[in-house]
């Protein structure tokens, strides 16, 4: 369909195009959210019954968030015991906050950081050994962020007996394995641990060994990318969507060209030479629309709601209201009520054969219907009217069924590819920020697909194709629509005859010009030449907006809502957790 509201269509597309930068931002936040990329920790237990020495190497990724550092809660930590914290890339100032569970605050209150940084903590605990039993919460259950992977080493000058590993939330049993790498050396490796999931390793302490096993070094941190700003993928995604619109829009317009008889095209001035009486060609609606002159005469053979459907190529609320107003002008239905108040419908005189079934349905229970809120009976009648208008559109012969097929296919495919492309934009945006800008290339490709899908979706109505007969009728209806849309209250005094005034009301509603027609009617009502026009015709011309609201309310069911309420991990010493600050 020709876009008579060009700017509104462009604005609608731009608003939908914002999906791309929003997806890029969401993907960046999702994949670049706070997490611990690597949690490497070791404990060393000596035979002299000294406190256990613990080393933690934490690769903490702050993502896009601006933070000062990390917090580390350690149950059983003596605030005055030796503690060392180092970081090569982030402030490593330390403050121990005493309490029921001591908290190590690492960072500078005046400096914020983003991205990935490594922290190494070294401290001692004397709560891991009880007699000949060892139990350590190597990863506590109080971490507020997920951990991508963990590597846990237990080193002792004694043999480990019957090692056991538990992982999960507090109290969970099993789920991991402690591997005996060598005498006195246990290793536990895990995959991703969600926030609140911990790892506890327990074992008996056996005979002494001749020497302490060697401890492997922590893995090297992953290289950083240099901190790509989220603005970059957002801007590229938005640009990718926008640049597809002109080309894809042109293709859609070509696919949606209307069929027009050569005789009609010549009379319109669209062509100069006539091929044959029966020949027809394809033409863009916009090109034909520029050659149509306004006409005061309503087209023959179609009613006002049908004319509105011919213009919009679909059935909407305004066409149903136009049907109601046309019936009111013919006294088949009488409408009472003040504008902005409850609308009251009353049965009128004898209805036409084409409207009688719907009117009988509306007044099946009473000759008076008050539209003061949701009415199931009225909704059934209103739905039946909509179905009747849909049925007319199908059997009118004004549209080629091929166009309906390609319209439906365009809607389905654009939604499918739009959803997939949106997901791809989000994922590749996050990957480009987290790992490498090279992933911006597939993200841009995904944004091009998204732009194509959005263009097809917003312009899919243009794919409905009229038959030559439909195009001829559209030209007649468009001429009247143009006359009413360009008409101003002052010029209406000279353009509209009193005996033709009532005939335009339903057409104005069918074209969505109810507010304009209301203003025109108020001017005409005060003119002496229109004193002979029955007053209820002016009432119909001004009550339309209120009728539209009342019928919408009466035919829309209220929304409903419902609601509802809804030894293992943590059994050792140490543990705790943390987050950022």
What does this protein structure show overall?
- This protein has helices at 6-17, 19-31, 231-255, 262-268, 285-289, 304-312, 317-329, 356-362, 376-395, 401-434, 440-458, 468-486, 489-495, 501-510, 514-525, 535-554; strands at 35-45, 52-61, 69-73, 83-86, 94-97, 103-107, 116-125, 129-130, 133-139, 142-143, 150-156, 158-168, 179-182, 185-190, 198-208, 258-261, 280-283, 333-336, 343-347, 368-371, 399-400, 465-466, 577-580.
- By secondary structure, it is α+β, with helices and mostly antiparallel strands.
- The chain has three domains: 1-32 and 230-269 and 401-464, no CATH class; 34-226, Immunoglobulin-like; 297-398 and 468-556, no CATH class.
- The strands form six sheets. Strands 4-7-2-1-11-14-13 form a seven-stranded mixed β-sheet, with no helix packed on it. A five-stranded mixed β-sheet has the order 5-6-3-23-10, with no helix packed on it.
